[in-house]
Amino acid sequence: MWLDYVHLHFFGKDTRSSFYVCPENLKKAHDRYVSKKQEIQRRAELAALRSQIEANQKEYEKKKKRFFGILISDGDITISSLDSVEEFMIEGDALGHCLFTNEYFKKDDSLILSAKKDNQRLETVEVSLKSMEVLQSRGAHNKNTRYHDKIVSLVKDNMSAISDRARKPKKERAVA
């Protein structure tokens, strides 16, 4: 613990000072500096993540903007497009799958939708923009929910809303 603690140079502390090298309560001092360092590292990671999201967002908008705002509902389940890279991160984190980490927002041939019931995430749906088929629909930890068949059927029944947007440039489309 002491060896970990004496890495005070990270904080610009004088490692020749007995005040820092021999604290009254080593565990307390160690834990305080570990917490400080973890917080600094978390902030740096978040800044890098924000930067990555912003850079990817511009490219994502170029490729998928015409699909933004898609909304499919049967009154019970609502399925909508993921319109930002940040939404991929939130969806992936909430459902415990690789949607963000495997960069599904970079897939040219896929449209990603989020199925919800009462504002609770149920499943993430991937649609092929080439074949206009549901490639996969997965709930928490890549498992199907009890609504799986209903979600897949709802997307299939409304595939024309997606295919219309895939064919027509945004300027020619009516607002959905």
Textual characterization of the structure:
The chain is of the alpha+beta class. It has two domains: about 1-60; about 70-170, Gcn5-related N-acetyltransferase (GNAT) (Aminopeptidase). Helices cover about 45% and strands about 15% of the residues. The protein contains six helices and five strands; from the N terminus they run H-H-H-E-E-H-E-E-E-H-H. It has helices at about 1-5, 20, 25-65, 85-95, 150-155, 160-165; strands spanning about 70-75, 75-80, 110-115, 120-130, 135-140. The chain has a five-stranded antiparallel beta sheet, with helices on both faces. A hairpin with a 3-residue loop joins strand 1 (about 70-75) and strand 2 (about 75-80). It is elongated and about 75 Å long. The mean pLDDT is about 90.
